[in-house]
Amino acid sequence: MTTTWTIERQVHFRHAGHGRGKQAHQGPAAAEPKLPKGRVPRVSKLMALALHLDELRQSGAIASYAEVARLGHVTRARVCQIMNLVYLAPDLQEALLFLPRTESGRDRAGGRACMPPKSCRKIQKEHSARDRPPRSCRPPWVATLGRGP
Known about the structure:
By secondary structure, this protein is mainly α. The protein is about 35% helix and about 5% strand. It is built from 5 helices and 2 strands; from the N terminus they run ββααααα.
């Protein structure tokens, strides 16, 4: 004589990530966290990366930016471009970090998102065409323009 047993349980499967397949978990499925619509703009990600790499470099966790380039499979020039974001004024860095999410299409990297703050624009308007704006309102790369090798 055989006895038949029936066990009833709620089971949900969730993806374990990165090739580990699916795992069964007892009980009802956990509620997925509500994420805001859209994606973080690329320039915001690069700004955060630059700040993080600068912190790692100063703490001694990485020896040089050349090492970062090797590990990230990018050129040293690209790492240099990303690290130049660290030299922006703090208010511009903050503005880049907190750009609105892109909900569809391409990132809105141009226009008002990349314009200097009102105080710098006001100072620049006050100067005549032959005068140069104060050094604090010029991006760091302006100083190198026009110089030959």
